[in-house]
Structure formats: C-alpha cells, structure tokens
Recover the amino acids of this structure.
C-alpha cells in the first residue's frame, strides 16, 4: 500500500464509522490490493490511535482487545486457506473502529492528558545509543510514557537494529504480574511487526512502547519478578 492509501485507511479507522472503513477496504480491493496488504495497513493504521490519541490509562482496554483480535484474524489469513479469507480485513478493521468509537463516547479527562512525546525528543537524542535501551526499560517500568515514546522514536531513527529493541520492551512488560493482557499485547505486537510489509511497520514498535508504558495494569506489584530475580537471576533489573 502506498502512503496515500495508508493515510485514507487510518483516517477512516480513527475518525470514521463502519460505512467509511468498509468503503476503504472495498476501494483497496478494487485497486488491486491483496488481503494481506490490507491487513498490514490496518495493523499500522491502529498505531496512529495509540501514538497520537490515547492518553487515559484505562482507555487502552477496548482498543487493546481489538488489536489482539486483529492479530488472530491476520494469523488465520497467513496460515490457512479458506474462501472466506477475503472477509478477514473487514472483520479486523471493524474490531478496531468499533473500539475507537466506543472510547470516543467517554469524555476526555484533562487530568490524564499526556505531554507530547515531541517535547522530550531532544532529551532522548542526548541519550547515548548504547544507553538508549536500558533507559527505555527504566521508563517503561516507571510508566513514563512520554519519555519512553521519545526514546523509541530516537532509537528507530538512529539505528536499523530491531530485535534487541523488541526484547527490551517485552522484558519491561514481564515486570508486571497478574495481567495476561500485557503478555498478549506482546505477542500481537511482535507478530504483526514481524510480518508487516508496509513502510510504516516501525509504528507497531512505537505503539508497543506506548501501550506498555501507559496502559493501566491490574497490578503494578513486581513481587513475582523479584522472586524470579532472587532465585534465578541476581542481575535482573527490578524497580
């Protein structure tokens, strides 16, 4: 998909309704785009909502589930042959759009407004590249989303390395116990990034960081992680 197609699809997902997103998927099919092309476009379109719109920690819940359902649909399309696969992108895009519109019914609370990640970009650029991932780990564990997001932006611009970045985000997520949604988001984000063929696939990592650094956890207790560190890895980062 080209940049214009990605913009139109993501705009419909964020600001449109069911008819608008359906129209975009139909237009892409008519333009010759394949099922997986459209599926990849939906995956990165969702990240715009994570990166640019969501701020209240509790409002990640419904969209998070929609992204996981998107991942299930895309996994099915990638791995199984079925005459019904053409319906997959419609299901995925409607999951996401429904969740976004549901959130929009709740008024935004200024108390939970986040500073822009751009405000911290100069700070992030001053962090040495070999210190960027340890610093990112600390910011995610501390639930400091603006700085964590600025760090991942800076890191993605400065290096082509991605595997260690994904491992760092996932390791940070492992600090939080009693919430399977955290690990499920890890799986969805890593799988969708790995398979995505669009020019915006790095946005999946940006959204991954925003989710892990902001989504309200069922428990921020690190007791289970600390127990692991005590008996198996004394050098594990525990904060």
């Amino acid at each position: 998909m080209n940049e214009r197609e990605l913009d139109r699809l993501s705009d419909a997902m964020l600001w449109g309704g069911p008819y608008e997103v359906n129209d975009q998927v139909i237009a892409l099919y008519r333009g010759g785009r394949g099922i997986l092309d459209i599926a990849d476009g939906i995956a990165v379109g969702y990240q715009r909502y994570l990166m640019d719109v969501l701020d209240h920690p509790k409002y990640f819940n419904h969209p998070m589930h929609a992204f996981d359902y998107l991942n299930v649909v895309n996994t099915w399309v990638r791995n199984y042959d079925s005459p019904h696969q053409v319906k997959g992108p419609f299901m995925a895009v409607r999951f996401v759009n429904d969740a976004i519109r549901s959130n929009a019914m709740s008024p935004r609370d200024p108390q939970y407004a986040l500073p822009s990640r751009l405000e911290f970009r100069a700070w992030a650029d001053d962090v040495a590249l070999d210190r960027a991932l340890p610093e990112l780990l600390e910011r995610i564990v501390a639930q400091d989303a603006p700085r964590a997001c600025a760090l991942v932006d800076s890191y993605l611009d400065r290096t082509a390395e991605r595997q260690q970045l994904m491992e760092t985000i996932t390791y940070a997520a492992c600090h939080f116990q009693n919430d399977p949604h955290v690990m499920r988001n890890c799986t969805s984000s890593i799988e969708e990034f790995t398979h995505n063929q669009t020019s915006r696939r790095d946005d999946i990592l940006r959204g991954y960081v925003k989710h892990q650094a902001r989504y309200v956890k069922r428990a921020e207790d690190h007791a289970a992680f600390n127990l692991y560190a005590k008996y198996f890895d004394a050098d594990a980062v525990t904060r």
